[in-house]
Design a protein that fits this description.
peptidoglycan synthesis, 23 helices, Penicillin binding protein transpeptidase fold, five-stranded mixed beta sheet, alpha+beta, elongated, five-stranded antiparallel beta sheet, disordered C terminus, about 15% strand
């Protein structure tokens, strides 16, 4: 019996030695493996913590107007997150976060035992670091390979980052339901406040969501969210993050969800936002698609009030049953900042931006560029040309061109430039074009920043070469600012996700055009609203002149398929194009007036509290009163006279004598039959 017992003892000792030996080997292997993992993790260095974040777009007043993805992802530093959120998260997700090195062994063991007892997965043991690793680098598939990768990334995170950095990353990437990633996105969505403004009750409510975002969302199921909040608050109290009084106060606090959580799909100024993102991509020299996930803050030039004014009048003026389209653009001519833009009547229906992408014939809106070139060459506001049906030959006589005036109205007499631009006389424009040389218009248009090519043909004077609305509005902006160079600006500032300045617009405008010629041409463009210049037909702005309370300069234009109106004050320039996408002829007389009406209503309301400034008269420009009927210097006897500006030395030298005799008293008239009297006596300002 004793022998058997001894044998058993020896066998037990032998097994124990074998077990200890194997355990030592296994432990050594495990320690070596752990050492290898640590060495590899150290060699590979810190993993990138970059996660896609929504790029946010702001208006001129820094009001948020949009973001680039359907997922809401914002990154905020840990010191801008409420301490209550941090405590609630730690109490709920990982109580020993600051004590362990990535893995909570005791908790993992407890979870295994609980799972074995229940014969099912009933308890999780992932630490905050493990969850962060999973959020950053892994899918949600439940495989051993994924588990091993998760452990490896957990080690890399713990070895290379401080605890606060890991916690900050976790709080900025965890999912809170409804496409919300990170505490800032969740806080804004559910409570319309920033993460640092959350109360204890709100913090506990949000901290409970990640366990089951679709189940514990207060928007989806408020009762379940409240029950979960109570358990989070209890955990905070147990961990001594809050007092008993705070626990009870938070438990009884009324939760008020943001009434705007069910957000509208309607974008603010969608055409503008798309163009701003494109410009930002060009500025940073990155792909357009990459902008969406860089977490940038893009500050734009959009004036929300003026954008709303434009959209309001589009809806009021354009008939619902009409399928005619429009492009609209308004900008600050002093800086080039685009303040409002509409690319079409319905962005959801068509993302084609007619203010920027559509090339259409500008009609008579091209003429001011032609006349600018003419004035540079010595043409004056009173230079006469005959208005009558004319056949023009060109290309060494091999080709003919016969334009016509609107409704075939002609003066059948000489008219001057101030009438030609106000009445939009086509014969005058083509004659001037041919007289100056067809390259004059081509070169002039380029000076005003229009990049679209203008053909050197007679019809180019009437706007037959297609251009974009943005080019034309920018060109007219050069008139408005006295000839300074500008380009359309949508983006004024860009910051990265950490608030570092990447770009800031600095308006530097160089004098590009001759200021004297620019001023004279600009003043001529006020004539389209001046009934004093009515002649063989009415001025082209007569239909909207009564709507205007300020002095504006501008030009309308029309073709069979296009209707334009572009005009400006010194501090605002706006343009409207209307037409069909087909394109097809605009047959409705009502539709032909849409562009002018929208422009007039917009300008008046936009400048209601910001009245137009008077442009300073450049040196070398003189203003004189001219008799509009004959282009001579007017006297007090002339029934119709208009202040007209000339480059000094080109103004008329002779006074009108036509009406002097009519102004004399009857007695004087009788005396004049016997006595000659100088007409200069009737000019009160004659020295």
């Amino acid at each position: 019996m004793e022998v058997i017992t001894t044998k058993r003892f020896k066998k037990t000792v032998k097994l124990l030695r074998a077990f200890l030996f194997l355990s030592a080997i296994a432990t050594t292997f495990f320690l070596c493996l752990l050492l290898v993992v640590i060495i590899i993790a150290k060699i590979q260095g810190p993993p990138s913590l970059f996660v896609p974040q929504s790029t946010i777009i702001y208006a001129e007043d820094e009001q948020k107007i949009g973001e680039t993805t359907n997922q809401k992802r914002y990154w905020v530093p840990l010191d801008q997150i409420s301490t209550d959120v941090i405590n609630a998260t730690i109490a709920t997700e990982d109580r020993k976060f600051y004590q362990h090195h990535g893995f909570d062994i005791i908790r993992m063991g407890g979870a295994v035992i609980a799972d074995l007892k229940a014969m099912a997965k009933v308890q999780g043991a992932s630490t905050i670091t493990q969850q962060y690793a999973r959020n950053l680098f892994l899918s949600n598939e439940k495989t051993w390979v994924r588990k091993v990768k998760e452990a490896f990334y957990t080690v890399r995170l713990e070895l290379n980052y401080e605890k606060d950095e890991i916690l900050e990353g976790y709080l900025n990437t965890i999912y809170y339901g409804h496409g919300l990633y990170g505490i800032e996105a969740a806080s804004l969505y559910y409570f319309n406040k920033h993460a640092h403004e959350l109360t204890v009750a709100e913090s506990a409510l949000l901290a409970g969501i990640p366990k089951g975002p679709s189940y514990y969302s207060p928007e989806t199921n408020f009762e379940k969210a409240k029950n979960r909040q109570e358990r989070v608050l209890q955990s905070m109290y147990n961990e001594e993050f809050i007092t008993k009084a705070q626990f009870e106060e938070a438990l009884n606090e009324k939760i008020v969800l943001n009434g705007k959580t069910k957000q509208s799909n309607e974008m603010v100024a969608p055409y503008f936002q798309v163009q701003a993102i494109k410009q930002a991509a060009d500025i940073l020299n990155v792909d357009r698609e990459k902008i969406d996930s860089l977490g940038l803050k893009i500050y734009t030039s959009l004036n929300l009030e003026r954008q709303q004014i434009a959209e309001k009048y589009m809806k009021q003026i354009f008939a619902d049953e009409s399928t005619i389209q429009l492009g609209f653009l308004a900008m600050d001519p002093l800086t080039g900042k685009v303040e409002a833009m509409i690319g079409g009547r319905d962005y959801e229906e068509s993302q084609f931006n007619r203010a920027i992408q559509a090339k259409r014939q500008p009609g008579s809106t091209i003429k001011p560029f032609l006349y600018y070139g003419g004035i540079k060459e010595g043409v004056t506001p009173v230079t006469p040309l005959r208005s009558e049906p004319t056949v023009f030959t060109y290309d060494d006589g091999r080709k003919k061109y016969q334009p016509s005036n609107y409704h075939d109205y002609y003066a059948y007499d000489d008219i001057d430039l101030m009438h030609a631009i106000a009445l939009s006389d086509n014969i005058y424009a083509v004659k001037m074009h041919m007289f100056l040389g067809m390259d004059t218009l081509t070169n002039s248009v380029k000076e005003f920043g229009v990049q679209s090519p203008i053909k050197e043909v007679p019809s180019a004077a009437l706007g037959t070469s297609p251009v974009t609305l943005i080019e034309m509005v920018n060109g007219y902006g050069h008139f408005a600012n006295g000839g300074k160079e500008i380009e359309p600006v949508f983006v004024t500032k860009i910051e990265d996700t950490n608030g570092q300045l990447l770009y800031e617009f600095n308006p530097i405008t160089n004098q590009k055009l001759d200021p004297k010629t620019t001023f004279v041409t600009t003043h001529l463009m006020t004539g389209m609203f001046d009934s004093q210049l009515n002649d063989y037909t009415k001025v082209t702005g007569s239909g909207i002149a009564d709507l205007l309370t300020h002095q504006y300069a501008g030009k309308s234009g029309s073709t069979q398929t296009d209707s334009w109106m572009i005009g400006f004050s010194q501090n605002l320039v706006a343009g409207v194009w209307t037409g069909y996408d087909d394109p097809k002829e605009i047959e409705s007389s009502e539709e032909t007036q849409y562009a002018k009406k929208m422009w007039a209503y917009f300008m008046e309301e936009a400048l209601k509290e910001d009245p137009p400034k008077e442009a300073p008269i450049p040196d070398g420009v003189v203003g004189v009163m001219v008799n509009v009927e004959n282009g001579l210097l007017a006297t007090e006897a002339c029934p119709v006279s208009r202040l007209t500006y000339f480059i000094e030395g080109t103004e008329p030298e002779n006074y009108c004598k036509e009406h002097l005799f009519d102004q004399l008293p009857t007695e004087t008239q009788q005396l004049n039959e016997n006595k000659e009297r100088s007409w200069l006596d009737l000019i009160p300002f004659w020295p």
